[in-house]
Design goal:
By secondary structure, the chain is an alpha/beta fold. The model is unreliable at 1-15 and 31-36 (pLDDT under 50). Helix content is 47%, strand content 12%. Strands 2-1-3-12-6 form a five-stranded mixed beta sheet. Strands 10-7-11 form a three-stranded antiparallel beta sheet.
Length: 448
């Protein structure tokens, strides 16, 4: 069994405590939230013309340049950019401000998996009042679905992460491995590669909650169903078991590298060919180019394998921005948000920083599709990634306490990875913990 360090345990406990406070505040807000006043598209135009000051919380690399470009276009508007920390750090501060009734920004960056908990707390402005629902065709289905929660449009998508398979062509060629098109072929490739060289693995996976949910999504699973505070969890539905039926073959036969993702050893393994593929989001090229320089010219991109040859995909990562109901000028905040995630000027800046857009127009742009990085051997990688975005299946939901769910994943499903045992057992343990937790927090949660 893999040992878990004391510091790791303490981090998990701290995260769980912080998120428990977040959930409690969310449910309290359900009965006591302050509704933002109604508005319209003309209100946005008037607000931008009049000007004012708003605060924007973000950690994205492009945020500073985007704010500068916005203020140049709208000189009467001042945007105070604040980096309040990434993901859980920002979310805890954000929920504390919501609970206190003051201190929240006008606009905040929130990842897709965390949006439901703030939407549930009625802390976000429904952007339909400004006509933003008419922008649906501007975005790919996965990200658009992620900002629509409980019948409200609570944000606009910024980036997206349709999955693809990144593979080391040099390794594949050396061992005579064909690029797998199905998951059965992927398992066969894993077996062949490791048999030929025991230091080589098809991929690394020591247990990652985001990867697991994306893989279940891609397999057709819909384990989380949410209707307000009513939640059902079924981590043994057909899609989930379809994924575990494949992935168990890799876990139980020790065909996966146990090198933790995003560690120094992981980057080294990607560079020296010890890890031959990555199944992850379309934002990965920039990471490889900047952090795995030894792999330059060796990596390529292929569609994510399927189960039966029918194209199917899911999102992995990504997020958007929301307007908080605490905003004293929601029309101005909404105007900034629309410019940020829907204007050509802003998206150009975003793309220059290596972002993968969620807007269909930019995904279909000829110069974007024609990009052929030397790192990927001159392959037009965006053609593959954009096709993947078109094949993302709809209907996926995250839990309204997904931040907490992710924090305890290692104690349940993670143990199956450590023991090279059945993932279904780990998923069942995760489900039980989530059902118990949700009910303790005031949700009505049932497990199937």
């Amino acid at each position: 069994m893999k040992r878990i360090s004391r510091s790791s345990v303490l981090r998990r406990v701290a995260t769980a405590i912080a998120v428990s406070a977040v959930i409690g505040a969310s449910l309290a807000a359900c009965s006591g939230g302050t509704a933002a006043s109604g508005g319209s598209s003309s209100d946005i135009e008037a607000a931008l013309k009049e000007g004012g000051t708003i605060t924007y919380w973000s950690w994205t690399p492009s945020a500073e340049a985007q704010v500068a470009a916005f203020e140049k276009q709208y000189p009467k508007v001042k945007v105070k950019l604040v980096n309040a920390g990434t993901n859980t750090t920002e979310y805890t501060k954000l929920q504390n401000a919501i609970k206190a009734g003051s201190g929240a920004p006008d606009v905040a960056q929130v990842e897709y998996y965390a949006i439901p908990q703030f939407a549930l707390g009625k802390a976000l402005v429904d952007l339909k009042q400004y006509g933003f629902d008419k922008l649906k065709s501007d975005y790919t289905p996965g990200p658009w679905g992620s900002v629509n929660v409980g019948g409200e449009l609570v944000g606009l998508p910024q980036d997206s992460g349709p999955m693809a398979m990144f593979y080391n062509k040099t390794v594949f060629d050396k061992y005579g491995i064909a690029v797998p098109k199905t998951w059965d072929e992927y398992v066969d490739a894993a077996t062949k590669l490791h048999a030929a060289d025991p230091t080589k693995y098809i991929t690394s996976d020591s247990g990652d909650s985001g990867f697991t949910t994306s893989m279940i999504w891609q397999a057709g699973g819909r384990p989380f169903q949410v209707d307000g505070t009513k939640v059902s969890i079924n981590l043994q539905d057909d899609g989930t078991k379809k994924w575990t039926g494949t992935w168990n073959k890799l876990v139980e036969k020790k065909l996966l590298s146990s090198v933790p993702g995003w560690s120094d050893d992981w980057f080294k393994a990607l560079g020296n060919g010890s890890i031959a593929t990555l199944v992850t989001g379309a934002w990965m090229p920039g990471v490889l180019e900047s952090s795995v320089k030894d792999g330059s010219g060796q990596w390529r991109v292929a569609p994510v394998p399927t189960y039966d040859g029918t194209p199917a995909n899911a999102e992995n990562g990504g997020g958007g921005q929301v307007v908080l109901k605490q905003s004293k000028n929601p029309a101005l905040a909404a105007g900034f948000l629309k410019w940020l995630n829907n204007s050509p000027e802003s998206i150009k800046v975003f793309l220059q920083s290596g972002g993968f857009p969620s807007t269909t127009k930019d995904l279909e742009a000829s110069d974007f599709l024609a990009s052929a990085p030397d790192y990927f051997g001159g392959q037009k990688i965006n053609e593959v990634l954009v096709d993947g975005a078109k094949n993302v299946s709809t209907g996926w939901q995250y839990l309204p306490f997904q931040v907490y769910a992710n924090s305890i994943y290692g104690d349940t499903v993670g143990q199956a990875y450590s023991n090279n045992s059945d993932l279904n057992t780990g998923l069942q343990a995760w489900q039980k913990s989530l059902v118990d937790y949700g009910n303790q927090q005031g949700f009505t949660v049932t497990g199937k």
